[in-house]
Design goal:
In chain A, about 65% of the residues lie in helices and about 0% in strands. With about 190 residues, chain A is an all-alpha fold. By secondary structure, chain B is of the alpha+beta class. Chain B contains 6 helices and 6 strands, in the order αααααββββαββ. Chain B has a 6-stranded mixed β-sheet, with no helix packed on it. The longest helix of chain B is centred in the middle third of the chain and has 64 residues. Classes of the chains: A mainly alpha (about 190), B alpha+beta (about 220).
Chain lengths: ~190, ~220
């Protein structure tokens, strides 16, 4: 008779971690590393920085996993940690004036890397173009668009992650998409 | 024709996140409005491009880095735990120290109290008047015998015969035949010749000690 292992629930994983089972966190890392990395990448636009952010996010997850109350799903909880951490880190970066977001309300010009002497040989892919465009979208809109169109969350899940009303989610997604379209059309 | 829907509504319509009734109203409007269809098409293209993006994978190094950091944090926590334990032990050591201090203080108080008792007891004993062998020898040791002078009661106070002193009343009372009297006699045999008076005889010893010899 075949024995089919029941899928491990979020709470089981958390309980195992709470009781000192180190493999529980390893399983969580395996399950969610791609998700966390992609969110970080789309939020910051730089693969190296995205890895740094992902490492910090997983450390936060490890620190607070024992306090996870299962009021939301583990996935939503991890998304929230990831978004909050990116917001905090990138917000700090904006404070130091490194952000490429412009304050005059006009969509920023996307730099064409092919025209630069160093990147002439490198073909500009759609991913890079979209990545740059996303970075130019203001953070609240970008968060909503990333969670919806790249991560595939429902409006309800996004509302839970961002802790805002569904109406706000709808508005942020629409404005983010609209802004992104403007930027891409101008490029 | 119903009014043009906002981009929020169009975007939600595209995602299928509108209530059924509202969604059908928007669909009806889109059938009739080229401008809104164009708008919706723009949103659909942008979303399509985003959803067409490949998901990136982190490098293998990420797992190693996270594992290392988690291990470091765990080690820090263990150290912190030990520190916590030491911090917890500290009051125990303090209480031991406090106990020792209290015992020491108690011992000191007892010692001082005993000393005070001893002094009090010795105060009630007649002054050590020195060795009779030396004192009575009258200068064998170079020390003169202490003068003993009878004091006379003048109805108000005790006066020395020389009239040099006075006292409301002698501080010490000695009864003839008591051990204290015997002690006095050992030092000052001349006291044996003191007259017997019912009210007692006051004696002035060495200009300091006055006592009343009672029958």
């Amino acid at each position: 008779m075949d024995v089919v292992a029941a899928p491990m629930s979020d709470q089981d994983l958390v309980d195992r971690h709470r009781y000192g089972d180190a493999t529980a966190f390893e399983e969580i890392f395996e399950l969610y590393q791609g998700m966390v990395y992609n969110v970080a990448l789309r939020m910051c636009g730089d693969p190296v920085e995205a890895e740094d952010l992902s490492q910090e996010i997983f450390l936060r997850i490890h620190r607070h996993l024992g306090k996870f109350k299962a009021r939301s799903s583990l996935k939503t909880w991890i998304y929230r940690i990831a978004i909050n951490h990116c917001r905090s880190r990138l917000g700090r970066r904006r404070w130091w004036g490194i952000s490429i977001e412009r304050d005059d309300g006009r969509p920023p010009e996307i730099r064409d890397e092919r025209r630069g002497p160093e990147d002439r040989a490198v073909a500009e892919g759609e991913a890079r173009r979209l990545g740059l465009a996303l970075r130019a979208v203001p953070s609240p809109f970008r968060e909503a668009v990333v969670l919806r169109d790249l991560e595939g969350l429902t409006y309800e899940e996004i509302a839970e992650v961002l802790r805002v009303k569904i109406g706000t989610v709808r508005s942020r997604i629409a404005r983010g998409r609209d802004r992104l379209r403007e930027i891409l059309e101008e490029a | 024709m119903i009014p043009h829907p906002t981009i929020d509504v169009l975007s939600a319509h595209l995602d299928g996140e509108l209530p059924r009734r509202e969604s059908s109203r928007v669909a009806k409007h889109l059938d009739e409005c080229l401008r809104c269809r164009h708008e919706l098409e723009g949103i659909r293209r942008t979303v399509g491009r985003l959803r067409g993006l490949d998901r990136e994978a982190p490098s293998d190094l990420l797992a190693t880095r996270v594992q290392r950091q988690v291990a470091l944090e765990a080690a820090d926590r263990t150290l912190a735990g030990r520190f916590e334990l030491r911090r917890f032990r500290l009051p125990v050591q303090s209480s031991t120290l406090l106990t020792f201090s209290l015992v020491f203080a108690l011992a000191a108080i007892l010692y001082l109290f005993a000393g005070a008792l001893e002094r009090e007891r010795s105060a009630t004993i007649p002054v050590d008047l020195g060795s009779p062998a030396t004192d009575l020898a009258g200068g064998e040791t170079g020390v003169s015998p202490m003068p003993v002078e009878e004091m006379v009661w003048d109805g108000d106070r005790w006066l020395s015969e020389s009239g040099t002193g006075g006292s409301p009343h002698p501080r010490l009372e000695v009864r003839r035949g008591s051990p204290q009297w015997d002690e006095l006699l050992r030092h000052h045999p001349e006291l044996a010749s003191l007259p017997l008076r019912e009210e007692g005889v006051a004696v002035w010893l060495h200009e300091g000690e006055r006592f009343l010899v009672k029958p």
